[in-house]
Each structure stands twice: as C-alpha cells, then as structure tokens.
Fold this protein.
Amino acid sequence: MKQSVFYRIKRNKVYLLLLLPTLLYYLLFHYVPMFGIVVSFMDYNLFKGIWHSPWVGLKHYRMFLSNPDAWLIVRNTLLLGLYKFIFAFPAPIALAVLFYEMRWKKFRRFVQSVSYLPYFLSSVVLSSVMIMLLSPSTGWINKAIQSLGYEPINFLQRPEWFRTIYIASDIWQMTGYGTIIFLAALAAIDPQLYEAARMDGANRWKQTVHVTIPGIIPAIVIMFIMSISGIINIPFDKAFLIGNAGNMDTADIITTYVYRIGILGGGMSYATAINLSLGLVTMLLVYLTNAASRKVGETSLW
Amino acid sequence: MKSLKWTWAAAAAVALTVSGCSSNNNNEPAASSSSSADASASASAAQSGSPSASAALPEPAKLRIFTENNTAWPPKPDWGVWKWVKEETNIDVEQVLATGPESLALAVSSGDMPDVLSVFPNDVQKFGSQGAFEDLSKHMDKMPNVKAFLDSHPDVMSRVVSPNGEIYSIINDGAGEGSQMVWFYRDDIFKKNNLEVPKTWDELYTVSKKLKEIYPDSYPFLFRHGLSTLDTFGPSFDIYPEFYQDPADPTKMKFGLEDPNAKTMVEWLNKFVKEKLIPPDWLTMDYKAWTQFMSTNKAFVTVQFIGQIEIMNSQLTDGHLQFMAPPIGAGDKPYLPKGGQEGYGLAVASTSKNMDAAFRYLDYIFSEKGKDIQSWGKEGETYTVVDGKRKFNDNYKEANDLRVVSGIQTAATYGWFDFNAWLSLVKPEEQYAYVEAPKYRFPVAYSRPNLTADEAAALSTSNDQLWKFWTGEVTKFINGDRPLTEWDAFIKELGKHDLEKVRTTYQTALDRQLANTK
C-alpha cells in the first residue's frame, strides 16, 4: 500500500522539523547566494546591480588566467590545503582511538572536554595569540629557543614557516572537536567482536587494527570525501590575519586574493570568476573521490 | 550497513552545519552593530528635541550618517556634536558604523546606503563613478558655504574633482595636523648618556649602536606601522615609495623605488635589522607591543602619530619623549611627508531620499558657524571665555577627550575643523611638536591624480600585483633574505609586474588634471 506524501510528512514531522534549521541555513547562505555567480560574466556595477550591468562573457576568466600571480596563488592554496589534509585529517582519528582505548574513564572525560575547548576560540583571537607567542623579540616560544642557546626565529615573516604555523595551529584547534564523530562511530562497534577477537588470542594492538579501525571505516570514508573539498576551500580569516608582506610568497591564497581584489578593490566580477572556477574544480575533486570510493569500497556519499 | 552509512552522513552533515554556523559568525557584527545603531539613534532622537530650536529653523529631517567606529573614541548617540547639529539645522542624525574596511562596499552593494557617508578618496574612486554617490557639483546652488569652502581651498578642490568634472565627495580640512607621522625620541636618555640628537641617518645609526651597547636588551629604533612607515622614512631620502608627482618635474609621475635613494633607504634599514637596532618583528609589530617597548626603556627613537608623544609621556613615569627633526638620509634638507591633509571626506548617497537634508547638513558643517560649533561646542556648555580666550570645561582633560566625551573631531561630525580647539587642550610643553612638524614638509603630497572609472577598473589587478611584488621583495631586502646586490635586478623585475601600465595610466591622469587646471 502506498502512503500519501501528506501522511508521510505528518508521520515524520518531528524529524522534518529537526532538519529544518539545517536546511534553511544551506538554502539561505549557500544556495540563494549561488545566483550571484552570474556577475562573473558581467562588468558588474555594484550600484546598478545585476539587472543593469553589461555582459562581458569570459573576460574575467581570461584576466585571471593571464595574471602572472594566478599560478602562485593557486599553488599556495592547493599546497596549503593538501598539507592540511595530509596532517590534519588523520589527527582526530588517532586521538579518538586513543580516547577509546583509555581505561581510566574520569581522566578520559577530562582530557576530552579540554581538547574541545580550542575549537571555540575565534580565529581572530587565535591569530593574535600566535602573533604574540611567535614574536622574535617578545614571544615566549622564541624566548625558549633563545634560552637553549639558539637564534630566535622570525616565524611570521618567513614564507617557509607559514604553512607549518597554519597547519599546526589548525591541528591544535580542531583535532579535539573532530574526534566527536569518530567517538560516536567507535561507540557503535559491537562489543562481541572484541570478545571474539580475544578468544582468538588477539592482543590490544591486534584488536585495534582488526576490530576498531575496520569498525569506523565508513565514518572515515565519509569524512575523507567531505574534507577533500577543504583542499581548495580554505577559510579566509586565519590566512589573512597571519599573512604579511614577509610571508606573502606562501600566505597569499585564493580567499585572501579575492578579498583584496573583490571586496577592497571593488572588482566583484573578477573575484566571482575566480571563485566559481575553483568551485568547479572542487566539485570535480569531490565527485572523483566519491566515485573512486564507491568502486573500491562500499561506502560513498551518494 | 546501508542504514549505518546514512547515519554517518547525517551526523557529518550536522557537524558541518554547526561549524559552518560558527565560522559565519564573523559576518555578524556588521548586522548587529547597525541594528544597535538604529536603536540608539532613535533614543537620541527622543532626547534631542531641544527647546532652543526656534521657529526660524527649517523643517525637521532625519539623516543616516556612515561614520568610523573607533575603539579609542567609541561612538555615542548622545554626543554633543549631534545635539548641536539638531539645534542648528533641525536634523536628527543616526550613526551607521563602519565595522571593517569592507563595510562601505557592503553598504553600497546592499542597496540601502546611509544618506551621508564618510569616505576615503579611493572609495570615491571605486564607487563614485559607478553611480553610488551624488554628483555634488550639480547642487552647489543649494550649498553656498560648501562652494565658498572649495573656492578658498584649491588643494581640496583639486583632490575632489573627478576627471569629468564631477564632485562625489568633499574632503575635510583643518584637523590633518593632528594625524601626521613624526619622529620623536627619549630626550632624558639622550641627556643622561650625553648623546647628540641624530641629524642624519648616519648619526642615527651611530647613536643607536651606542644605545644598544648601554642597553643591550633594547632595540633603540622602533616603529610599528611595518612597511607603511616607508611613507614617512621616504621623504628623508627625498622620495615616497610608490607613485607621486615628481617635485623636480611636476608634470611627471614618479615611482619612488626607482630612485637610487630608495636603495640607500633600504640599505640602512637592512643594516639596522642585521645589527638588531630594529626589532626583528618590525613588520608585524602592533600598537600594544610598541607601547610595551616604549614604556619599558627598550626603545628610544621612534616614528609614530604626533599625538602619541603626549599619550606616551603621560604613561612614562620617569622618562620623557620629545619631537625630533627627521634625520637626513639623502639630499641636504630634513623632510617629513607633506602632512596637514585629511583623508576622510563626505559623500551623499545617490539613492538618498533625504537629499535636501543631506545638502543642508554639508552646508552647515562647511560654514564658518558650523566650523566653530562643531570644533568648539557652545559657550557655557563646553567652554567658557576667560580673558577673551576660550577655555574648555574641566571634564576635557586632554585633547582626545574632545572625541571621547563630545565626538568633536570624529569622522563625519565636521567638515572644516578649527585646529586651535584641539591645540588648546594640548599641554603647552607638548605644543612644540605641532609647531615644529610643519617646518619639515616635503614639497609634494603623497597622492595620485584621480582616474576615470575605466582607468581604475583596468588597474585594479595591476595595482595589486605591483604592490604585492614590491612589498614582498623590499621586506626580503630589509630582512637580508635577498642580497642588496640584486637591487637593480629587482628594479627590472618591477616591469614584469605591470609597473609601466600603472605609470602610463597615472601619467595620463596627471596630464589631464594639469590641462584642466590651466
């Protein structure tokens, strides 16, 4: 018997209601603004608006591709995203497994709560803390380095340090919070599997490798596909705040460039064109990863 | 497995949304502050129905004015400046605050611009020609005082008039003296150690070396504006770093870094950094770090805004700062940038429904009477006349209190400022700097001629390219990451970053400006 749509909505209204805020968020802040991408094909006049600005076709895309800085900025973005992915993605998995294996529950709960805290710092606060700590004249980190007899390092003015600082602070801030999803996955593993493994003579390490990790593989794959898009979509704030003329060679990424040109410089069309091209690349990446994961394993986003 | 998979997908989606929401918070202050401004402005409107409003006043009006949001003088709806505006013009003002450098762009694109906006010349360049601001030159008949002001201030006139004759903003005048960068030093430390005040960069270097010997953990020479400080160092080497009108040939635009003196300047800075006479984090130093160095005897010569001399002196318990003539780096005359000009100006939104009130407001603040009231306040209320001289009430202890208490000399509250009001609160012993600084003005201002909309659009990415390249490379030269032997190569590389394109465009603009003023 096929139930009417109305009946199904009525029956699931609580769940639908739960979904509503998320849906609204995506609709308002991600789908509605998407129509703005038409300005990338116009000479957008901020004041005349979308309806009265002249169309110029692919002019802004050509402009970006012919800009000698473009390659550097794309490279910086990809490298930063890739390193972030390589170093920051496995960190919450490892930490979650460690939490899971910890037998002293009180201590575990304490450490877990503390590890969530940095997540709630805004990146503005985090960046000013870093600027203070890393200062070669007054910062504690450099004082420690000096007390060991080394020369202070000018962390924030050196392009070679930017990625390290960015990713290390990201791991420090995000890892604790990132464990939540994996801990939930770990909690769902059937305890009988551990009993069976012990019967077969598996030690703690073998149990981790053969029961724990396979148990959370679906969660890992889903998170993996989702973080692929993060390789290109790097948030603007931190890179902007710790970037300066000294480390610009590595710190200038697409979002900071778009901010300078688009919002400060008023080149909305040009900035939109850059963002749209990258959005397309990101979508392609996510699609390919998903397809690959569907081929290889049984888990995929869609 | 299938259902498990969906559970994960859902959990992940929720987590992403949560983090998405929190990262979105960054945009919120703009919205919330403007709504709080709404609330406070209606409160001020209720209060300011002043009895002195006589029948001669024009009919009441309301204006939304876009102003700065400075934490050193947090805007208040009950500031005296707004009350006086109401009393004189019968206009209720509601402040809309800028929360960041992008606020104006967002206000313009939102389609709901405040009626009157505080704008910088480059904002006008960007948005004026797009039609965001009203062409004020068409309305001069309604603003006789503005017209008279512009006629008597040809330098302001030349900065506000666009290549096609439009006037999209009126730049303020009068308070620029208070916002110039100057050199100052610890005269007590110099005296104590029998050191001569340096007159050249060579002497600055020697004296810094000596100070470093006496105070080994100090960085004798300190500045906190990173590379922008080159704008102040430049004139002592007879240049500005980027484009300006060449004083040797005023018909030509000059790019300062190409001048051999620029290399000398960078060489000096490199030497100072190498020998730790400048802190290694000179590029990223903030105001807090600067005050820390200055107040703990860790820096002795510095470059900062002129008002900081007095502010720091009141914080230094034993020690004293004094204005210092700029040291000569090249040429034979000591120079500071040509100061005295203001950056902020006022524009009227072309979408404003209260345009007549906006013109009335502009006309008032650029009138002699408006200048007097918006600079001094009113007799009996803010000042008394003693022996024929005006004296501010005792609740104004230092000049900055004018801003904090009454909003005097804050963006959009005046057009034409009487700087004597400010000076009257500067302690007599601190007035020396204000008297001395104008003696060292560089012959030309650090400004560029106005571009047409098309020219500006064509340069938007080139300017960024050139700026990014030179700031990055000059930083490397100063930090010693690139040897100065490669300076000539660097100058050649500028060409690859659109130097010629930018130069030609500004040269065209300058030629046009000169032809128009003939």
